[in-house]
Amino acid sequence: MSETELVLRSTRVVTPQGTRAASVVVKDGRIAAVLPHDAEAPAGARTRDFGDDVLLPGLVDTHVHVNDPGRTEWEGFWTATRAAAAGGITTLVDMPLNSLPPTTTTAHLDTKREVARSKAHIDVGFWGGAIPGNVKDLRPLHDAGVFGFKCFLSPSGVDEFPEVDQEQLAAALGEIAGFDGLLIVHAEDPGHLDAAPEPHGAKYADFLASRPRASENDAIAGLIALARRLDARVHVLHLSSSDALPLIAAAKREGVKITVESCPHFLTLTAEEIPDGATEFKCCPPIREAANQDALWEGLADGTIDCIVSDHSPSTADLKTADFGAAWGGISSLQLGLPAIWTEARKRGHTLDDVVRWMATAPAALVGLGRKGAIEPGRDADFAVLAPEETFTVDPQALQHRNKITAYAGKTLHGVVRSTWLRGRQITDGATLTEPTGELLERPHRG
Ligand SMILES: [Zn+2]
Protein backbone atom coordinates (compact mmCIF):
# COMPACT_ATOMS: atom_id res chain seq x y z
CA MET A 1 0.00 0.00 0.00
CA SER A 2 2.82 2.41 -0.81
CA GLU A 3 0.31 4.70 -2.55
CA THR A 4 -0.80 5.66 0.95
CA GLU A 5 2.56 7.30 1.54
CA LEU A 6 2.15 10.94 2.36
CA VAL A 7 4.30 13.81 3.58
CA LEU A 8 2.75 16.60 5.67
CA ARG A 9 4.85 19.76 6.07
CA SER A 10 4.47 22.66 8.44
CA THR A 11 6.74 25.28 9.94
CA ARG A 12 5.07 24.45 13.27
CA VAL A 13 4.67 20.76 14.10
CA VAL A 14 3.86 20.03 17.75
CA THR A 15 5.95 17.03 18.82
CA PRO A 16 6.76 15.64 22.30
CA GLN A 17 10.16 17.37 21.95
CA GLY A 18 8.58 20.76 21.22
CA THR A 19 7.21 22.69 18.27
CA ARG A 20 9.43 22.86 15.21
CA ALA A 21 9.41 22.99 11.42
CA ALA A 22 9.15 19.43 10.19
CA SER A 23 7.95 17.00 7.54
CA VAL A 24 5.84 14.14 8.87
CA VAL A 25 5.98 10.99 6.79
CA VAL A 26 2.84 8.86 6.90
CA LYS A 27 2.69 5.27 5.72
CA ASP A 28 -0.26 2.90 5.94
CA GLY A 29 -2.07 5.19 8.36
CA ARG A 30 0.79 5.55 10.81
CA ILE A 31 3.54 8.09 11.36
CA ALA A 32 6.66 6.57 9.81
CA ALA A 33 9.10 9.42 10.49
CA VAL A 34 9.38 13.04 11.58
CA LEU A 35 12.03 14.60 9.33
CA PRO A 36 13.49 18.09 8.86
CA HIS A 37 11.16 20.55 7.13
CA ASP A 38 13.20 20.56 3.93
CA ALA A 39 13.64 16.77 3.75
CA GLU A 40 13.01 15.38 0.31
CA ALA A 41 9.74 13.46 -0.01
CA PRO A 42 10.11 9.75 -0.81
CA ALA A 43 9.58 9.01 -4.52
CA GLY A 44 5.88 8.70 -5.33
CA ALA A 45 4.69 10.19 -2.04
CA ARG A 46 1.99 12.85 -2.03
CA THR A 47 2.87 16.07 -0.24
CA ARG A 48 0.73 18.61 1.59
CA ASP A 49 2.34 21.81 2.80
CA PHE A 50 0.38 23.62 5.52
CA GLY A 51 2.72 26.61 5.57
CA ASP A 52 2.59 28.28 8.99
CA ASP A 53 -0.60 26.54 10.12
CA VAL A 54 0.16 24.29 13.08
CA LEU A 55 0.15 20.50 12.78
CA LEU A 56 -1.10 19.00 16.06
CA PRO A 57 -1.82 15.41 16.98
CA GLY A 58 -5.55 14.72 16.76
CA LEU A 59 -7.09 15.40 20.15
CA VAL A 60 -8.31 12.59 22.40
CA ASP A 61 -11.54 13.34 24.30
CA THR A 62 -12.14 10.69 26.95
CA HIS A 63 -15.33 12.26 28.34
CA VAL A 64 -18.20 12.42 25.85
CA HIS A 65 -21.88 11.59 26.39
CA VAL A 66 -23.01 10.37 22.96
CA ASN A 67 -26.40 9.10 24.28
CA ASP A 68 -26.81 6.58 21.45
CA PRO A 69 -28.95 4.47 21.30
CA GLY A 70 -31.90 5.63 23.36
CA ARG A 71 -31.54 9.39 23.63
CA THR A 72 -30.46 10.16 20.09
CA GLU A 73 -32.60 13.28 20.09
CA TRP A 74 -29.91 14.60 22.49
CA GLU A 75 -26.90 13.62 20.31
CA GLY A 76 -25.84 10.34 18.62
CA PHE A 77 -22.71 8.82 17.11
CA TRP A 78 -23.25 10.44 13.70
CA THR A 79 -23.49 14.03 14.95
CA ALA A 80 -21.08 13.63 17.89
CA THR A 81 -18.26 12.26 15.77
CA ARG A 82 -18.82 14.89 13.07
CA ALA A 83 -18.69 17.65 15.69
CA ALA A 84 -15.57 16.11 17.19
CA ALA A 85 -13.87 15.90 13.79
CA ALA A 86 -14.74 19.54 13.11
CA GLY A 87 -13.15 20.40 16.46
CA GLY A 88 -9.86 18.62 15.78
CA ILE A 89 -10.68 15.51 17.85
CA THR A 90 -9.85 12.12 16.31
CA THR A 91 -10.59 9.80 19.25
CA LEU A 92 -13.44 9.89 21.73
CA VAL A 93 -14.39 7.58 24.56
CA ASP A 94 -18.12 7.38 25.17
CA MET A 95 -19.57 7.60 28.67
CA PRO A 96 -21.66 4.64 29.84
CA LEU A 97 -24.77 6.59 30.75
CA ASN A 98 -27.58 8.57 29.15
CA SER A 99 -27.78 6.01 26.36
CA LEU A 100 -30.43 3.31 26.64
CA PRO A 101 -29.18 0.79 27.50
CA PRO A 102 -26.34 2.10 29.68
CA THR A 103 -23.00 0.30 29.20
CA THR A 104 -23.25 -1.85 32.33
CA THR A 105 -23.16 -5.38 30.80
CA THR A 106 -21.34 -6.92 27.83
CA ALA A 107 -24.69 -7.37 26.06
CA HIS A 108 -25.30 -3.64 26.38
CA LEU A 109 -21.77 -2.94 25.14
CA ASP A 110 -22.46 -5.10 22.08
CA THR A 111 -25.62 -3.10 21.39
CA LYS A 112 -23.72 0.17 21.63
CA ARG A 113 -20.94 -1.03 19.34
CA GLU A 114 -23.47 -2.21 16.78
CA VAL A 115 -25.05 1.23 16.72
CA ALA A 116 -21.74 3.13 16.61
CA ARG A 117 -20.04 1.04 13.93
CA SER A 118 -21.53 2.62 10.82
CA LYS A 119 -21.74 6.17 12.22
CA ALA A 120 -18.23 6.80 13.59
CA HIS A 121 -16.38 9.57 11.73
CA ILE A 122 -13.53 9.30 14.24
CA ASP A 123 -12.24 6.45 16.40
CA VAL A 124 -14.56 5.57 19.27
CA GLY A 125 -13.97 3.64 22.49
CA PHE A 126 -16.26 2.91 25.42
CA TRP A 127 -16.26 3.25 29.19
CA GLY A 128 -18.19 0.68 31.19
CA GLY A 129 -20.45 1.59 34.11
CA ALA A 130 -20.23 0.50 37.76
CA ILE A 131 -23.67 0.63 39.37
CA PRO A 132 -25.20 -1.11 42.39
CA GLY A 133 -25.42 -4.85 41.74
CA ASN A 134 -23.19 -5.19 38.67
CA VAL A 135 -19.83 -6.11 40.25
CA LYS A 136 -20.05 -9.48 38.44
CA ASP A 137 -20.28 -7.66 35.09
CA LEU A 138 -17.09 -5.63 35.52
CA ARG A 139 -14.53 -8.31 34.65
CA PRO A 140 -16.44 -9.43 31.51
CA LEU A 141 -16.71 -5.79 30.40
CA HIS A 142 -12.98 -5.33 31.01
CA ASP A 143 -12.24 -8.46 28.96
CA ALA A 144 -14.55 -7.13 26.22
CA GLY A 145 -12.36 -4.02 25.88
CA VAL A 146 -13.90 -1.14 27.82
CA PHE A 147 -11.30 1.42 28.92
CA GLY A 148 -12.41 1.48 32.56
CA PHE A 149 -15.51 2.05 34.66
CA LYS A 150 -17.48 5.10 35.62
CA CYS A 151 -19.44 5.48 38.83
CA PHE A 152 -21.35 8.26 40.56
CA LEU A 153 -21.30 9.00 44.29
CA SER A 154 -24.44 11.16 44.01
CA PRO A 155 -27.50 10.84 41.72
CA SER A 156 -26.51 10.81 38.05
CA GLY A 157 -29.62 12.47 36.68
CA VAL A 158 -30.99 9.33 35.03
CA ASP A 159 -32.78 6.50 36.84
CA GLU A 160 -31.14 3.64 34.94
CA PHE A 161 -27.67 4.61 36.21
CA PRO A 162 -27.88 4.84 40.01
CA GLU A 163 -25.06 6.08 42.22
CA VAL A 164 -23.03 3.74 44.47
CA ASP A 165 -22.77 4.12 48.24
CA GLN A 166 -19.41 3.80 50.03
CA GLU A 167 -19.77 0.05 50.49
CA GLN A 168 -20.66 -0.51 46.83
CA LEU A 169 -17.82 1.80 45.80
CA ALA A 170 -15.31 -0.26 47.78
CA ALA A 171 -16.69 -3.51 46.31
CA ALA A 172 -16.46 -2.20 42.74
CA LEU A 173 -12.99 -0.73 43.22
CA GLY A 174 -11.73 -3.93 44.87
CA GLU A 175 -12.95 -5.94 41.89
CA ILE A 176 -11.46 -3.48 39.38
CA ALA A 177 -8.11 -3.36 41.18
CA GLY A 178 -8.02 -7.17 40.90
CA PHE A 179 -7.50 -6.87 37.16
CA ASP A 180 -5.59 -3.55 37.33
CA GLY A 181 -8.51 -1.67 35.79
CA LEU A 182 -9.34 2.03 36.13
CA LEU A 183 -12.29 3.54 38.03
CA ILE A 184 -13.37 7.02 36.96
CA VAL A 185 -15.52 8.85 39.47
CA HIS A 186 -18.10 11.62 39.50
CA ALA A 187 -16.97 12.86 42.89
CA GLU A 188 -19.65 14.88 44.67
CA ASP A 189 -20.58 13.75 48.17
CA PRO A 190 -24.35 13.22 48.48
CA GLY A 191 -24.42 14.22 52.17
CA HIS A 192 -23.18 17.72 51.39
CA LEU A 193 -25.60 18.03 48.48
CA ASP A 194 -28.53 17.00 50.70
CA ALA A 195 -27.50 19.49 53.36
CA ALA A 196 -27.18 22.39 50.90
CA PRO A 197 -30.18 24.55 49.94
CA GLU A 198 -32.33 23.11 47.13
CA PRO A 199 -31.72 24.81 43.81
CA HIS A 200 -34.76 26.36 42.22
CA GLY A 201 -35.51 29.36 40.10
CA ALA A 202 -33.50 31.37 37.66
CA LYS A 203 -30.66 32.67 39.85
CA TYR A 204 -27.26 31.10 39.12
CA ALA A 205 -26.00 32.00 42.61
CA ASP A 206 -28.68 29.74 44.13
CA PHE A 207 -27.65 26.85 41.92
CA LEU A 208 -23.98 27.37 42.79
CA ALA A 209 -24.84 27.34 46.51
CA SER A 210 -26.62 24.00 46.06
CA ARG A 211 -23.39 22.26 44.92
CA PRO A 212 -20.75 23.45 47.43
CA ARG A 213 -17.02 22.89 47.02
CA ALA A 214 -17.01 20.80 50.19
CA SER A 215 -19.05 18.18 48.38
CA GLU A 216 -16.26 17.65 45.85
CA ASN A 217 -13.45 18.04 48.38
CA ASP A 218 -14.80 15.40 50.77
CA ALA A 219 -15.71 12.96 48.00
CA ILE A 220 -12.18 13.24 46.62
CA ALA A 221 -10.61 12.84 50.06
CA GLY A 222 -12.59 9.63 50.55
CA LEU A 223 -11.64 8.36 47.13
CA ILE A 224 -7.95 8.99 47.81
CA ALA A 225 -8.19 7.04 51.08
CA LEU A 226 -9.88 4.12 49.31
CA ALA A 227 -7.42 4.09 46.40
CA ARG A 228 -4.55 4.08 48.89
CA ARG A 229 -6.07 1.21 50.92
CA LEU A 230 -6.83 -0.95 47.86
CA ASP A 231 -3.76 0.12 45.84
CA ALA A 232 -6.21 0.84 43.02
CA ARG A 233 -6.17 3.22 40.03
CA VAL A 234 -8.74 6.03 40.23
CA HIS A 235 -9.46 9.08 38.10
CA VAL A 236 -11.37 12.18 39.22
CA LEU A 237 -13.78 13.36 36.55
CA HIS A 238 -14.52 17.03 35.81
CA LEU A 239 -12.76 18.67 38.74
CA SER A 240 -14.34 22.02 39.53
CA SER A 241 -13.38 22.78 43.15
CA SER A 242 -9.82 24.11 43.27
CA ASP A 243 -9.87 23.53 47.05
CA ALA A 244 -9.28 19.83 46.32
CA LEU A 245 -5.97 20.51 44.52
CA PRO A 246 -3.70 20.34 47.61
CA LEU A 247 -5.23 16.97 48.60
CA ILE A 248 -4.69 15.60 45.12
CA ALA A 249 -1.15 16.95 44.86
CA ALA A 250 -0.26 15.38 48.22
CA ALA A 251 -1.78 12.04 47.18
CA LYS A 252 0.22 12.06 43.95
CA ARG A 253 3.46 12.85 45.81
CA GLU A 254 2.74 9.95 48.13
CA GLY A 255 2.30 7.56 45.18
CA VAL A 256 -1.49 7.09 45.26
CA LYS A 257 -2.56 6.09 41.73
CA ILE A 258 -4.81 9.06 41.04
CA THR A 259 -5.28 11.18 37.93
CA VAL A 260 -7.51 14.20 37.41
CA GLU A 261 -9.28 15.94 34.56
CA SER A 262 -10.95 19.32 34.26
CA CYS A 263 -13.09 20.74 31.45
CA PRO A 264 -13.18 23.75 29.14
CA HIS A 265 -16.20 25.25 30.92
CA PHE A 266 -14.47 25.30 34.33
CA LEU A 267 -11.33 26.77 32.75
CA THR A 268 -12.89 29.41 30.49
CA LEU A 269 -16.28 30.41 31.95
CA THR A 270 -17.01 31.93 35.37
CA ALA A 271 -19.97 32.05 37.72
CA GLU A 272 -19.78 35.85 37.71
CA GLU A 273 -20.66 36.06 34.00
CA ILE A 274 -23.60 33.63 33.95
CA PRO A 275 -26.89 35.47 33.42
CA ASP A 276 -29.91 34.44 35.45
CA GLY A 277 -31.97 31.81 33.66
CA ALA A 278 -29.05 30.83 31.38
CA THR A 279 -29.19 27.10 32.03
CA GLU A 280 -26.98 26.30 29.05
CA PHE A 281 -24.30 26.98 31.71
CA LYS A 282 -25.71 24.39 34.14
CA CYS A 283 -23.58 21.36 34.83
CA CYS A 284 -22.63 19.27 37.88
CA PRO A 285 -20.33 20.03 39.58
CA PRO A 286 -20.95 23.68 38.70
CA ILE A 287 -18.88 26.40 37.06
CA ARG A 288 -17.41 28.36 40.00
CA GLU A 289 -15.90 31.81 40.58
CA ALA A 290 -13.03 33.46 38.66
CA ALA A 291 -10.60 32.98 41.57
CA ASN A 292 -11.37 29.25 41.54
CA GLN A 293 -10.62 29.19 37.82
CA ASP A 294 -7.24 30.85 38.37
CA ALA A 295 -6.35 28.12 40.85
CA LEU A 296 -7.41 25.38 38.40
CA TRP A 297 -5.02 26.82 35.82
CA GLU A 298 -2.25 26.68 38.43
CA GLY A 299 -3.18 23.04 38.96
CA LEU A 300 -2.75 22.42 35.25
CA ALA A 301 0.55 24.27 35.16
CA ASP A 302 2.04 22.28 38.05
CA GLY A 303 0.71 18.91 36.82
CA THR A 304 -1.85 18.29 39.57
CA ILE A 305 -4.52 18.23 36.85
CA ASP A 306 -3.54 15.83 34.07
CA CYS A 307 -6.08 16.30 31.28
CA ILE A 308 -8.68 18.60 29.79
CA VAL A 309 -11.69 16.81 28.26
CA SER A 310 -15.06 18.13 27.17
CA ASP A 311 -17.69 16.37 29.30
CA HIS A 312 -19.91 17.12 26.30
CA SER A 313 -23.37 16.38 27.71
CA PRO A 314 -26.08 17.78 25.48
CA SER A 315 -29.86 17.62 25.66
CA THR A 316 -32.78 18.96 23.70
CA ALA A 317 -33.75 22.61 24.15
CA ASP A 318 -36.95 21.82 26.04
CA LEU A 319 -34.90 20.31 28.91
CA LYS A 320 -32.91 23.53 29.29
CA THR A 321 -35.71 25.46 30.99
CA ALA A 322 -34.91 28.74 32.76
CA ASP A 323 -35.14 27.04 36.18
CA PHE A 324 -31.72 25.89 37.45
CA GLY A 325 -33.36 23.26 39.66
CA ALA A 326 -35.34 21.62 36.87
CA ALA A 327 -33.08 22.07 33.81
CA TRP A 328 -30.90 19.25 32.49
CA GLY A 329 -27.32 19.58 33.74
CA GLY A 330 -24.77 19.34 30.97
CA ILE A 331 -22.75 21.61 28.68
CA SER A 332 -22.20 21.06 24.97
CA SER A 333 -18.69 21.86 23.80
CA LEU A 334 -17.35 18.95 21.78
CA GLN A 335 -16.56 21.05 18.72
CA LEU A 336 -15.34 24.06 20.71
CA GLY A 337 -13.02 22.66 23.37
CA LEU A 338 -9.79 23.31 21.50
CA PRO A 339 -10.41 26.97 20.58
CA ALA A 340 -12.00 27.69 23.99
CA ILE A 341 -8.99 26.31 25.86
CA TRP A 342 -6.44 27.80 23.46
CA THR A 343 -8.04 31.25 23.79
CA GLU A 344 -7.65 31.16 27.57
CA ALA A 345 -4.31 29.31 27.60
CA ARG A 346 -2.59 31.86 25.36
CA LYS A 347 -3.82 34.72 27.58
CA ARG A 348 -2.27 32.95 30.55
CA GLY A 349 1.09 32.46 28.85
CA HIS A 350 0.73 28.80 27.91
CA THR A 351 1.76 27.32 24.58
CA LEU A 352 0.13 24.94 22.14
CA ASP A 353 2.57 22.31 23.42
CA ASP A 354 0.82 22.60 26.80
CA VAL A 355 -2.62 22.38 25.20
CA VAL A 356 -1.59 19.28 23.24
CA ARG A 357 -0.25 17.66 26.40
CA TRP A 358 -3.53 18.32 28.26
CA MET A 359 -5.94 17.50 25.40
CA ALA A 360 -4.16 14.74 23.44
CA THR A 361 -1.14 13.12 25.07
CA ALA A 362 -2.41 12.87 28.65
CA PRO A 363 -5.95 11.63 27.82
CA ALA A 364 -4.44 9.02 25.46
CA ALA A 365 -2.16 7.90 28.29
CA LEU A 366 -5.10 7.80 30.73
CA VAL A 367 -6.82 5.14 28.62
CA GLY A 368 -3.58 3.39 27.63
CA LEU A 369 -3.83 4.31 23.95
CA GLY A 370 -0.13 4.36 23.15
CA ARG A 371 -0.89 4.71 19.44
CA LYS A 372 -2.73 8.03 19.90
CA GLY A 373 -2.05 11.52 21.23
CA ALA A 374 1.38 12.53 19.89
CA ILE A 375 3.25 13.14 16.65
CA GLU A 376 6.05 10.59 16.75
CA PRO A 377 6.96 7.51 14.72
CA GLY A 378 4.74 4.48 15.30
CA ARG A 379 1.65 6.40 16.36
CA ASP A 380 -1.50 6.69 14.26
CA ALA A 381 -1.40 9.47 11.68
CA ASP A 382 -4.18 11.46 13.39
CA PHE A 383 -3.83 15.22 13.07
CA ALA A 384 -5.55 18.55 13.45
CA VAL A 385 -4.35 21.52 11.40
CA LEU A 386 -4.90 24.72 13.35
CA ALA A 387 -4.66 28.41 12.52
CA PRO A 388 -3.98 29.55 16.10
CA GLU A 389 -3.87 33.30 15.48
CA GLU A 390 -7.15 33.36 13.56
CA THR A 391 -10.39 34.14 15.43
CA PHE A 392 -14.05 33.30 14.90
CA THR A 393 -17.30 34.08 16.68
CA VAL A 394 -19.29 31.07 17.85
CA ASP A 395 -22.50 30.73 15.86
CA PRO A 396 -24.47 27.83 17.39
CA GLN A 397 -26.22 27.16 14.08
CA ALA A 398 -22.85 26.46 12.45
CA LEU A 399 -22.01 23.67 14.92
CA GLN A 400 -22.27 19.99 14.00
CA HIS A 401 -23.82 19.17 17.41
CA ARG A 402 -27.31 17.71 17.11
CA ASN A 403 -28.68 20.42 19.39
CA LYS A 404 -27.39 23.92 18.82
CA ILE A 405 -27.44 25.03 22.45
CA THR A 406 -24.05 26.02 23.83
CA ALA A 407 -22.66 28.14 26.63
CA TYR A 408 -20.14 29.57 24.13
CA ALA A 409 -22.65 31.28 21.81
CA GLY A 410 -21.36 34.65 20.65
CA LYS A 411 -17.88 34.21 22.12
CA THR A 412 -14.95 35.19 19.94
CA LEU A 413 -12.32 32.45 20.12
CA HIS A 414 -8.79 32.01 18.86
CA GLY A 415 -7.93 28.94 16.80
CA VAL A 416 -9.60 27.81 13.59
CA VAL A 417 -9.41 24.09 12.77
CA ARG A 418 -8.52 23.98 9.07
CA SER A 419 -8.62 20.22 8.64
CA THR A 420 -8.61 16.97 10.60
CA TRP A 421 -6.91 13.72 9.59
CA LEU A 422 -7.61 10.19 10.75
CA ARG A 423 -5.00 7.49 10.08
CA GLY A 424 -3.53 9.47 7.20
CA ARG A 425 -6.80 10.49 5.55
CA GLN A 426 -8.32 13.94 5.66
CA ILE A 427 -11.80 13.57 7.16
CA THR A 428 -12.74 17.24 7.11
CA ASP A 429 -11.44 20.30 5.33
CA GLY A 430 -13.18 22.53 7.84
CA ALA A 431 -16.34 22.77 5.76
CA THR A 432 -17.35 19.29 4.61
CA LEU A 433 -16.91 15.86 6.15
CA THR A 434 -16.14 12.56 4.43
CA GLU A 435 -18.14 9.37 4.93
CA PRO A 436 -17.44 7.67 8.29
CA THR A 437 -14.09 5.85 8.52
CA GLY A 438 -13.73 5.70 12.30
CA GLU A 439 -12.86 2.45 14.04
CA LEU A 440 -14.19 1.06 17.29
CA LEU A 441 -11.33 0.88 19.78
CA GLU A 442 -10.68 -1.62 22.54
CA ARG A 443 -8.48 -1.12 25.56
CA PRO A 444 -5.00 -2.33 24.67
CA HIS A 445 -3.60 -5.07 26.87
CA ARG A 446 -1.13 -3.66 29.35
CA GLY A 447 2.39 -4.84 30.04
ZN1 LIG B 1 -19.98 13.53 32.16
How would you explain this protein's 3D organization?
Residues 54-426 form the Amidohydrolase-related domain. Homotetramer. With 447 residues, this protein is of the alpha/beta class. It has two domains: 2-55 and 380-428, Roll (Urease, subunit C, domain 1); 58-366, Alpha-Beta Barrel (TIM Barrel). 29% of the residues lie in helices and 22% in strands. The strands form three sheets. Strands 1, 2, 3, 4, 5, 15, 16 and 17 form an eight-stranded mixed sheet that branches. Strands 9-10-11-12-13-14 form a six-stranded parallel sheet. Strand 6 (59-64), helix 1 and strand 7 (89-94) form a beta-alpha-beta unit. The site of zinc ion has 5 residues, from loops.
